[in-house]
Amino acid sequence: MFYQGLPALYYDAFFCELDEAELLFYKQMIASVPSPGLEIACGTGRLLLSLLEAGLSVEGFDSSPEMLAQCKIKAEKASIKPILYEQAMQELSLPKRYGCIFSALGSFQQLAHFDDAYAALKHFYEHLLPGGKLAIYLYLPWYNAPEFGQWHEQEPIALQDGKTLLVTEKALHDPIEQQLFMTYRYQLKENGKIIATEEKDMVIRWYSRHEFQLMLASVGFKDIKVYNGYDDNGPSDVMIFVAGKIPRAEQWLFDPKNKNMVDELKEAFKQKVDRSIDLSGFE
Ligand SMILES: C[S@@+](CC[C@H](N)C(=O)[O-])C[C@H]1O[C@@H](n2cnc3c(N)ncnc32)[C@H](O)[C@@H]1O
Fold first, then answer.
1. Residue 283: which pLDDT band, with cuts at 50, 70 and 90?
2. Domain boundaries, the chain
3. Cβ(62) – ligand 1 distance below 6 Å
4. Is-contact 220 125, C-beta < 8 A?
5. Does the C-beta of 109 come closer than 6 Å to ligand 1?
6. H helices within the chain, ranges in order?
7. Which residues share a beta bridge with 153?
């Protein structure tokens, strides 16, 4: 597992900071549907804690106990009490149902295998309230990856505890399986000496727009929209898929195999109701 040891301890120092556009995107999404929301793979609470601070009702889950531990430490410092679960996306089973389920920063792509990804989407669908929304952030991981097969040294990161984090990374990819293989070497430096070294692998799966739309549709999601980044402004290496769970009654109405019965009902309805009611939307 990648998110343990140094990568979990220094996640917030190494991975990207929360920006206003990201926060606004999820705030609007959560506010547009019934509470609560659920963040998939919430990690150290980079996004989750800011949403809670903004007064939104959101819970989170992650498969890494070490990432969740970091989240709890930060929450305690900010006097926030998040509801957190240690669970894996592909086996998600929670006692509640949610108005919005969302995955930020490509967390969903940590599922390297298609079967796991598909199982996770089914679980998200089951955990949504009727009328709820799913939002999944996907990116093209090879777009900004270092030259394949070469070690690449990142800028040293000065940590709050006075130490320095050195990260070296190497990327390989399998274009047929749509997988990027990253190896990260983390080195912790104190007073000019390396005091810890860890090397960890991560596999990231990527998707094409149409492939992911088809996956969502085959799980039962409707009204699928794709945003090119948070501001949806032109081409981007980021796609945010937003898909709805239509209430069961409406699904029945729109299912082609019920067409004859729906037509008969419409006809019976038309003959019974006041003719002044506009039925054009049902034609
Ligand atoms: C890039 S971090 C993103 C964390 C957080 N969503 C954020 O935006 O900062 C990816 C997270 O996915 C979690 N993760 C990886 N595989 C998972 C799985 N199968 N189920 C649940 N969480 C998983 C990791 O533990 C890690 O916290």
1. very low
2. 6-140+207-246, 152-203, 250-283
3. yes
4. yes
5. no
6. 6-9, 11-14, 20-31, 48-53, 65-77, 114-127, 209-219, 248-254, 259-272
7. 168
- 33-43 per-residue burial string, b: 16 or more CB within 10 A, e: under 16: beebbbbbbbb
10-39 mean pLDDT = 91
Q: E-assigned strands of 29-156?
A: 37-40, 58-62, 84-86, 98-103, 128-139, 152-153
pLDDT band at 228 (very low <50, low <70, confident <90, very high): very high
C-alpha neighbours within 13 Å on the C-beta side of residue 251:
12
Closest CA to 141 of 50, 206, 188: 206
Instruction: Look at residue 154 and tell me whether its pLDDT is greater than 60.
Output: yes
Mean pLDDT of the chain: 91
Dist CA 141 CA 169 (whole Å): 13
Q: What whole-number distance in Å separates Cα of residue 186 and Cα of residue 196?
A: 8
From the CA of 43, give the closest atom in ligand 1: 27
The CA distance from 138 to 145, in Å, is 15
Overall average pLDDT of the 204-228 stretch: 96
Q: What value does the mean pLDDT take over residues 174-185?
A: 94
Q: Cβ(129) to ligand 1 under 6 A?
A: no
- Write out pLDDT tens, residues 88-136: 999 999 999 999 999 999 999 999 999 999 999 999 999 999 999 999 9
The CATH classification number of 6-140+207-246 equals 3.40.50.150
